[in-house]
Amino acid sequence: MDQGKLFVFSGPSGTGKGTICRELLKEPGTWLSVSITTRAPRAGEEHGVHYYFVTREEYDRTVEEDGFLEHAEIYGNAYGTPKKYAMEHMAAGDDVILEIEMQGALQIKKAYPEAILIFVLPPSLKELRDRIRKRGTETEEQIATRMKTTLSEIELLPEYDYFLINDDLEEAIATARSIMKAEHCKTAGSAQTLIDRYKEEQ
Amino acid sequence: MDQGKLFVFSGPSGTGKGTICRELLKEPGTWLSVSITTRAPRAGEEHGVHYYFVTREEYDRTVEEDGFLEHAEIYGNAYGTPKKYAMEHMAAGDDVILEIEMQGALQIKKAYPEAILIFVLPPSLKELRDRIRKRGTETEEQIATRMKTTLSEIELLPEYDYFLINDDLEEAIATARSIMKAEHCKTAGSAQTLIDRYKEEQ
Fold first, then answer.
1. What is the CATH number of the domain that holds B44?
2. Which chain A residue's Cα is nearest to B199?
3. Cβ contact (<8 Å) for B164 and A186?
4. pLDDT digits (tens, 9 = 90+) for B96-112
5. Confidence of residue B50 (pLDDT cuts 50, 70, 90)
6. Overall domain count for chain A
7. Record: contact A201-B124, CB cut-off 8 A
8. Model ipTM?
9. Is the residue at B103 inside a domain?
10. Do B154 and A195 touch (CB under 8 A)?
11. Would an 8 Å CB–CB cutoff place A10 in contact with chain B?
């Protein structure tokens, strides 16, 4: 059986990467990486579904054991992507999907260069602005700040392997699936296994 | 408009790459590269469809002008893949499909490193052998020789970007389309254009 791959979806907020990832999970043989956190569960949050809730001691031990693909402290709480589960699922042939903010994605690429980084983009800044305005949760000033952040995030594009413009959701999902399929057809890393397979037949 | 890309399909004979390429051409914005040859047209062969039939002088001039992506002499006739038409179609946004034997494919990669090389594989040597036997056009000895050639050709896999196992034809076509789609989402070569596009909006 072929080894699974790690697909990291990232990009500015509001681009719909969460929705895309949830759809991708409907494909059999696809598994969503769940983060570890030291913060307390909120109402409705389930251990192993939304997060793995761990103690600070467990978290620190995992850091020491180099057990994270990436980790960060945010407002006094620690978060991390555990290596173990992702590796186990990939070894079992599952593709692992990970949705994460941009700095985390770049950390993962350093820790695990085989990771495939996909940058989810809005069709345009105007479109993104309109989407956020429609939600009505942010002031014009907040929106302007966010647009600046988005633009500076987009400058990180060259660090990613693929871009995915989320204009039409169905199309973006199909394109994400194409990327995943194509990655499984790359000779890099699997050419020798294939050659051996045909040779053994002789 | 995005620039088109050059997709080179190659692999051992009998793997069905011709059928796959013909199906891919049904997609709008896809163009098949037609070779140049100095040999005379055979019955039913059309200029510009099966080959561009040229004189030896025209061929030699094209060689001198570095006008081929690859070229070779076979049994006293010269063949070549003209650069000009492929480049024109790519500039116009078309993907260019090229079906070619393996040495030609590797020549193209040298002349035009942006070319995407796809190696079409049989599901197994046994399966390939059965297909050829069914045709009934070759002796057992010829088949055995051909299997040896196939195996030595498969050893060239690491030179290619992708492999495509033609087990189920429909699936192979869908996978080829996925590869083409994914290649258009690579940040390599297009990240700066994208960044500029978002920046201009500001």
1. 3.40.50.300
2. A151
3. no
4. 999 998 989 999 999 99
5. confident
6. 1
7. yes
8. 0.91
9. yes
10. yes
11. no
| Overall pTM surpassing 0.80 (yes/no) | yes
> In the A/B pair of chains, how many CB contacts fall below 8 A?
104
Residue A79 inside a domain? The answer is no
Check CB contact of A200 with chain B, cutoff 8 Å: no
Strands A77-82 and A36-37: antiparallel
A81 inside domain: no
Task: Check whether A27 has a pLDDT greater than 60.
Answer: yes
Contacts of A123 in chain B (CB under 8 A): none
B146 touches chain A (CB under 8 A): no
Domain that includes residue A25, residue range: 6-33+94-201
pLDDT one-digit tens code per residue, A8-20 = 999 998 899 999 9
